[in-house]
Design a protein that fits this description.
The structure is a homotrimer of 474-residue chains.
Chain A (H helix, E strand, L loop, with lengths): L20 H14 L4 E3 L6 H6 L6 H5 L4 H9 L16 H13 L8 H13 L11 H12 L6 H7 L2 E5 L9 H7 L8 E2 L15 H12 L6 H17 L4 E4 L11 H12 L5 H22 L2 E4 L3 E2 L4 H7 L7 E2 L9 H7 L7 E3 L6 H10 L5 E3 L9 H15 L17 H21 L5 H19 L3
Parallel strand pairs in A: 1-2, 2-3, 4-5, 5-8, 8-9
Antiparallel strand pairs in A: 6-7
Chain lengths: 474, 474, 474
C-alpha cells in the first residue's frame, strides 16, 4: 500500500484532556501523576486460561473482533452480519478472519465518537506500535502487522500482563467452575501476578428458567449438599462461595432484571423452592424467590466478607433471531430502567451497617446516579457507587458520572475504575481513558477553586489506588 | 419611535458556537463548511397548500404567533390569554392582530434562554432584515415592517422555499387526505421543489376513542375495503399507504402514549376488533389492540418500505379547560416518561433486521438516549436515533443529545436534524441552530483529539446530508 | 499547633465561576452586580425561636454538626457513628462535642467535591474569619475559635440575621403550632426583620399512618371544628391556614411519596375518611384519600392564596435501625423516582389558571426537569419550577438545572434560589453559591451570543430579587 497523510494514526498525548488551555495544564499535571500507576482490575471477563496456559493468541480477528461485543454490535448495526465476524462459527478460515478485519476497517467511520475508536487506536499505537488509521486501504497491512506481532513471545498473555503493569485482575466464573486455571496459577512459582476468580451465580438464582433445576442438581453434587431443600441450596451456595474465597475471590457479581433483595418468610420461601424444584414455579413467584435468594447472598456476604457487586437491569438477548443463530452475549442486550431506593431498603436495613458487608452498585441507567446511588453511598458505609459500565463506559458518560455523584457522595464512596472487559488488549487503554477523564474533572474543580492542587493530586491518586482497594477489600 | 442601543438587534455570526477561543475557531471552520448546504426536512407540519397555491401570507400574527404553540405556551404561562393571541378565533381583526404582536413583544423577556428567541430574532434579521429587538417600544415598527414585506412576491411561499435552499420537505397528513395539494405540485411543471406527504394514522389506531368508528368507516369508504373486519382494516391501511407512497411519501409517523408494538394472536385481535367496531372496547383492550395495529404498521413498513417514525409519550391536552375553549395542539401538551427497550422487543425481533424496515425513534424523555435509544440503534441496522424534538429542540438539549448517544451509536445511527415545525419561516433558523451546535460538539472532539479535523469535516457534512438521506431513504 | 501551607484555607474570590478566562470575566461582572443583594429565603427550616429569643449558640458541634444531616450522612458513610456526632443524645458532654468536631475535621477529605466543603469553608472564612483547612491537626484550633466567637454579641442570631443581609426568611411549622415565636417577633418593636411561618400539614394528610387519628383530634381541638367528619377536617384545615396566613405565612409545603392530587367523588371521600377515623383504612385507600386531601389543599390555596410548594418522592428513614436508634431526619432519606405530568393533570385542570393559585414544583429526580417541570411551568401561569433541593443543591446539579429547564421555561418561570436549610450559618454561603453559578450560566449565554450583557445583567438581578418575590407573592 501507499500511505497518505490521512492514513497516519495520530495518538495525541493530550487526548481526552480538557480543551481550554488553563484546564488542560492542570489536567495534564494530574494525569502525569497517575498515568504510570499499576492497573487494578477488580471486575472483568478475561479468560483465566489465557494467563494460566500462556498460549499465544492465534489471529487478529479472534483476538480483537469476534469476542468483542462492543465492536460486533456497531458493525452489525452498520449492516455487517455477525457470521462474517466469526461469531459462533465453529470453523472460520484464515481468509474469513482477514475478511472480518477488512469489514471492521471499512466501517471504521461508524466508530467515530465512540470509545471503541479510542481503545482500538490506542491498542494499535501503544500495544502494537502501528501508526495506520484503519480503512479499506490499510486493513491488510494492519492485519499483517498484528498477526506478525502476536506470535512473538512479547505478546504472550503473561508478558502482556507484566508490560501492562497489572497488579490485580479478577475473572468472572460460574459457581460450578473447578477454578483449575486459578489453581494452576496459584501453584506456579514462576507466576508473580494475581488473578482472582469472581463468584457469579446468576443462573442459579433464577428458579423460573428451564435450566435452573439442572444447575441446582450440579451445585448439589459439587458441594455434597442436598439441594432438594432450600436449606441445602443455601449450604451449597455457602460451600461454593467458600471454595471461591479460598482461591482468591474477593467478590460475587450479580445481574438480574431488577435490583431487588427481599426476604420471604421462611415457610413461603420453602414453599416456592419446592415448587421451583418441581418445575412449577410461575414467573412472578420466580422473581420473588430470586429476590429472596439475593437476600441470602447478601447475608452470606455479610458473613464471608465477599464484596457484592450488582449490575442489574439489562434486557438480555433482545433480538430473538440473533440469540437463536449466534447465542447469548453477542451484543444484542439493551439496558432498561432500574430502581434502587425501594429495592434495596430491606437488605440495607438488614446489612447496611454490618462491618463485613460491602455492596458496589453499578448502573447503565444514569438517572439513578444523582437520585439514588450517590444518596445511598453517601449514607451507608457499606455502599459504593460503581464506575460507569458497558454502554456508558465512554468519555461523555464518565464525565457525567463524576458530575452526577460527587455532590452527594464525594470521591471516597466510589469504586474506582472497572474495565469489565474480555478484551485483554484494551485494558490499558480503558484504564488510561478513565485516568485522563478523572484528571479532567479534577482539573475543573481546581480551576474554579473547589479543590486545591494538593487536594486534587491526592484525590487523583486515591481514585486509581485507594478506592478500588477499599471497595474490593484488596 | 426613537431607537436606542438596546433596541438594536445584534445577530452575531458566531452565535451558539463554543465560547472558548480554540474551540470556537474549530467550530467556526466546521460550521462554515456546512452552513450553506441545502435544507433536508423529512418531518414537519408545514401546510402543503401554502406551496401548492403559493398565496401570500396575510398578517404577521397569523403567520408567526397564532399557529405556533412554542410561542403561545410561554406567553400563556406569562399570563396572556390564548384568545388574545388569536387561537381558535374565527374572526380576529387587524387591531387584534396588532395587539397580539404587541403582547409578544412586551413579554419578549420571558423568551430569554429559549430557542424561540434564537429562531425569532434570526427570522427578523435574516428573513426580514429587521434590526430591532422586540419590546413594547418596537412592537409596532416590527409589525409594520413584516406586514409590508409579506405582501411582496419575494415573501410568497415558493419564493421563500427557494431562498431557504430547501431540497426536500415533508408534510404530515391524515390517511384519508386526498393529497390534492401534493398532486397539484406534482403536476405543476413550474414547481421544482419536493414536498412529500407523511402518513400519520394515529387516530385510526386508537380503537377506544369515540371518533374511531367513524374514522374507520371513512377509511373503508375511501379504500373500497370492508373495514367491518380486521382483515379489511389491514387492507384499507395498506391501500392508503400505497396511495401515499405513490404520491411521494417516504415515511409514516406515529404518536401514542407508549411505544408498544406487539402482535396479539389472530383470534384475540379479531375479537377485540369486533368489540371495538361495536363500540364496546375498554381502554386496556384498546391499548392492546392499538399495539397490535402498530405491529401491523411495522409489518407493512417492512413490505412497502415506508420509514416508520415514532414520537411517543405525550400527555395531550393536559389542561381540560383550554382543550374545551381552544381545541387541541395549542401548547397544552406535556411530555411523560417513555420506555423503549421492552416495548420494542417483539417488533424488532420480527423486523429489526428486515432489509426494507427502518425505524426512527424520537423522544422527549431524554433519559432513554444513553440507556435505550443509542443501544438499540447501536445494534439494529433498522433503528436510527431521532434528533431532539419539540420541548428539547433547543441548544442545551441538542448538546446533551450528541453527548448521550455518540458513545454507543456514533454518528451514523442518527437521523439528521428534523425541524418538525409548522412555522415555515423558522425552518432556516432551526436547521442553522443545529448546524452550529453539531459543529460545536465536533469541535470538542477535535480539540481533545478524539477526531482529526478531516474526520470532523466529513462528519459535519454527513450529519446534514448523508444521515437524513439514509434514515429517510431519500 | 504549627500551621503549614496546607493548613491555610484559601477561599478564592472567583470560586465556582467558569474557568475559561473570557467566560470568567463576564461571570465576574454579573456576579458582582448581585452578590451584595439582600437574601430572600422563602423556604427553610431555621428554628424561629432562635430569632425570637436571640439566645447565643452553645457550642460548635450542636450548631454546625449535630443538626445538619448533610454533614452527618457523609460522616456516617465514612464509618462515624451518628451517636458520636451527638445525634439524639440527650446528654452530650463538652468533651464529646469537641470529639465530634475532631471526627468531622479528620474526615474532611470525604467532603471534597461536595457543597458541604464550599459552605463550611465559606462559613469558616466569611462568618468566623478562620483561615484554617479542617484536618486532624487543626480541629481543636478551629473548635476553640468558633467557641470563642459564638458567645459574643456579634454572633447572636439577630445580629447574624442583620449581618447576613436577610430580607425575608420562612420557617417550616406544624399546623398545630401556636406560632408563639413568630407572634413574639411580630410584637417586638426592636425587631426589624421578617420571619414567616410555613404551613406544613404532611402528617395530617396521611390517613393510613398510626399517628393520624391523634393528630386530627388535636387539629379539631385547636380549630374548634368537629374533625369526626370530612367537612370538619376541611374546616379545621382552612381555620389553621387562616391562622398561619394571619401571622405572615405565604406558603404551604407538602412532601409525600408521590405528587398526586386528585379529587374523589364526595361519597367515596366521606367513606374513606370515616374508615380512616375508625383506624381501618388500607395503605392504598390511604393514598387515595391523601391525594384527595392534597386536592383540597390546592382548592384552599386557590382561595386563600397561600403558595403551594411540593417536595415529593423521598423514601424517608431508609435505614430502619437508624430510625429506631436516632429518630427521623438524621440523613437516612433516599430520593426516588417521581412523576408529575399525569399526577398533576386533575389539579391543574381545576386550578391551573386560577388567578390566586401558585404552585412551586421541587424535585430531586432531575429527569423531570426537561421532561415535565419546564413544560408545565412553560404553559401554566400558576406553575414555577423550584430550585434544586437537598441532594441536588450543589454546583453541578445547579448547572444542570438551568441547562435542563431554560429552553422550555426561560428564567421567568423559576422560583429563585431556596436554601431549604436548618443550618443558619450556611445561609449566606448557599445563596452566594447559587449567585455564582447562575452568573456562570448567564455568562455562557452572553459568550455564545444568546443574550446581550444588558439582558444578562437584568436576568441576574431578576433571579435574586424578582423571581422569589413573584413565585412566593412577597
Amino acid at each position: 500500500m501507499t500511505t497518505t497523510d490521512k492514513d497516519v494514526l495520530d495518538v495525541h498525548p493530550d487526548r481526552l484532556l480538557p480543551a481550554e488551555p488553563g484546564l488542560r495544564a492542570i489536567a495534564r499535571e494530574l494525569y502525569h501523576a497517575v498515568k504510570d500507576l499499576p492497573i487494578i482490575s477488580p471486575h472483568g471477563h478475561v479468560p483465566p486460561q489465557w494467563l494460566a496456559d500462556d498460549v499465544p493468541f492465534t489471529d487478529p480477528t479472534s483476538l480483537l473482533i469476534t469476542p468483542d461485543h462492543y465492536i460486533n454490535r456497531l458493525l452489525h448495526a452498520s449492516g455487517v452480519s455477525l457470521a462474517d465476524l466469526g461469531v459462533n462459527q465453529p470453523t472460520f478460515s484464515a481468509e474469513q478472519s482477514r475478511n472480518a478485519f477488512r469489514l471492521l476497517c471499512q466501517n471504521w467511520k461508524a466508530f467515530r465518537g465512540t470509545p471503541m475508536k479510542f481503545w482500538f487506536e490506542s491498542e494499535l499505537a501503544d500495544v502494537f506500535g502501528i501508526d495506520l488509521v484503519p480503512s479499506a486501504g490499510t486493513a491488510d497491512a494492519i492485519y499483517d502487522r498484528i498477526a506478525e506481532a502476536i506470535v512473538t513471545p512479547e505478546f504472550r498473555p503473561r508478558a502482556l500482563y507484566k508490560r501492562f503493569n497489572i497488579e490485580f485482575i479478577a475473572t468472572t466464573d460460574d459457581p460450578a467452575d473447578d477454578l483449575r486455571h486459578h489453581i494452576k496459577l496459584e501453584n506456579d512459582p514462576t507466576w508473580e501476578g494475581k488473578v482472582a476468580p469472581t463468584f457469579r451465580p446468576d443462573k442459579y438464582l433464577e428458579p423460573a428458567t428451564p435450566a435452573w433445576n439442572g444447575l441446582v442438581d450440579t451445585l448439589g453434587a459439587l458441594s455434597g449438599e442436598d439441594t432438594g431443600t432450600y436449606a441445602g441450596w443455601v449450604s451449597a451456595m455457602e460451600n461454593r462461595r467458600a471454595f471461591f474465597k479460598e482461591h482468591g475471590a474477593v467478590s460475587s457479581d450479580h445481574s438480574h432484571r431488577d435490583a431487588g433483595m427481599e426476604k420471604l418468610d421462611d415457610a413461603e420461601a420453602e414453599r416456592l423452592y419446592a415448587k421451583a424444584r418441581g418445575g412449577e414455579i410461575t414467573r412472578e413467584e420466580g422473581d420473588a424467590l430470586r429476590r429472596d435468594f439475593m437476600f441470602q447472598q447478601a447475608r452470606m456476604a455479610s458473613e464471608d466478607g465477599l464484596v457484592m457487586t450488582l449490575h442489574p437491569a439489562v434486557v438480555r438477548n433482545h433480538h430473538t433471531p440473533s440469540l437463536e443463530l449466534f447465542g447469548a452475549d453477542v451484543g444484542g442486550d439493551i439496558p432498561m430502567q432500574v430502581e434502587f431506593a425501594n429495592a434495596l431498603k430491606p437488605v440495607l436495613s438488614a446489612f447496611g451497617t454490618a462491618p463485613n458487608f460491602q455492596l458496589v452498585l453499578f448502573t447503565i441507567d444514569e438517572t439513578v446516579y444523582s437520585r439514588e446511588l450517590a444518596p445511598l453511598a453517601g449514607f451507608y458505609p457499606s455502599v459504593y457507587v460503581g464506575a460507569p459500565w458497558w454502554f456508558i463506559d465512554e468519555a461523555e458518560a464518565i464525565k457525567r458520572y463524576r458530575r452526577a455523584i460527587t455532590g452527594s457522595a464525594g470521591f471516597s464512596r466510589t469504586s474506582g475504575f472497572i474495565d469489565d472487559t474480555r478484551a485483554f488488549l484494551s485494558i490499558p487503554a480503558r484504564h488510561d481513558m478513565n485516568r485522563r477523564l478523572d484528571s479532567g474533572f479534577l482539573a475543573e474543580l481546581v480551576a474554579d477553586h473547589r479543590l486545591t492542587m494538593d487536594e486534587a493530586l491526592e484525590t487523583a491518586h486515591d481514585l486509581v489506588v485507594t478506592q478500588p482497594r477499599k471497595a474490593f477489600k484488596l
